[in-house]
Design goal:
49% of the residues lie in helices and 7% in strands. The protein is built from nine helices and three strands; from the N terminus they run αααααααβαβαβ.
């Protein structure tokens, strides 16, 4: 039996892929390898020509490959900004992975019972909910799933909160 680490970044990538409509369903494994940088399809694939990019309404200054586009849904390609959508998935997964790891590590320390949000409180970068959460203390018992649920439901930062989670002492 496999012992899956709940802090494994792959689990967070999978969740973000499932919650979005960016990658074709049968391309999830290739997508994860791409997102982890283990098989970067933008580096290894066949580059699109200028005319091919224009035909798909893609930014002609950006580099795209056939292999990269092959794993994307039509709606992701037609969005005009498929690289941005893919980047957002990676960013969201990384932030949630970071939050989960931070809270899990804090829970393992007997003296670290309280954490708090730390926002830059920059009105141009952070949403009003993130700013409202700055310095708010929560118990490590609240758990990472609940904290991520609150972020999912309230944060309107694009693509996700930039707040850190720090020790409250
Ligand atoms: Zn926010």
């Amino acid at each position: 039996m496999f012992d899956i680490d709940p802090c494994d970044e792959i689990l967070f990538l999978e969740k973000e892929i499932d919650a979005s409509d960016v990658f074709k369903k049968d391309c999830k494994l290739i997508a994860i390898e791409h997102l982890l940088g283990e098989n970067d399809l933008l580096k290894t694939g066949t580059k699109l020509t200028l005319d091919e990019k224009k035909a798909l309404n893609l930014n002609p200054r950006m580099k795209f490959t056939k292999e990269f586009l092959e794993i994307l849904t039509d709606s992701a390609i037609n969005s005009g900004c498929p690289k941005g959508l893919v980047w957002n998935i990676r960013t969201k997964a990384r932030v949630k992975h970071y939050i989960t790891t931070t809270i899990t590590q804090a829970k393992a320390c007997a003296f670290m019972t309280e954490l708090k949000f730390f926002s830059s409180c920059n009105v141009d970068r952070d949403c009003s909910w993130c700013i409202s959460q700055h310095d708010i203390v929560f118990s490590t018992n609240v758990g990472s799933e609940e904290i991520i649920r609150r972020i999912n439901e309230n944060c309107t930062c694009d693509p996700i909160t930039r707040s850190c989670i720090v020790w409250a002492k």
